[in-house]
Amino acid sequence: MAPKGGNRPNPKVEAALERKAVVEAEKEAKKAAEEEAAEARAWKIGSNTRAASREATAAEKHAEKMKYEAEKKAALEADEIDNAGVPKPRKVKVKKKDDVSALLMAGLENSKTGKAKKKNNNGATANKKASEEAEKRKIQQEALEKKCQG
Length: 150
Description:
4 helices; mainly alpha; 78% helix; single chain
């Protein structure tokens, strides 16, 4: 008589064989790595390892830089997707003032001392009063001219 399952193998036996194959593969990989390490140690004697270590660190730095740039790019893309419907604010252009002349005038005022400084302050107020009076006279003359014409 034939077994109940026919030609199908037992699932428990299959699982055990798979686990056994995985364990053997791990052992072989470990053994190969040990052999490679031993060979590397043998070849290491008398070789220039500094150049290799420099190249390794440069490769690591490059890989880290590329990873950072990829993360940054992904974050920017995600941000662009989030803000797709939001209009960007317009940049306001600020008019530059003539800072050089202001600094020059401040320097000139600070350089004056004593009587010269006092005279300049009094003269400045006198000049302001004179210019205000001249403007008033000009306005009055314009008003008289309008009356005469009208």
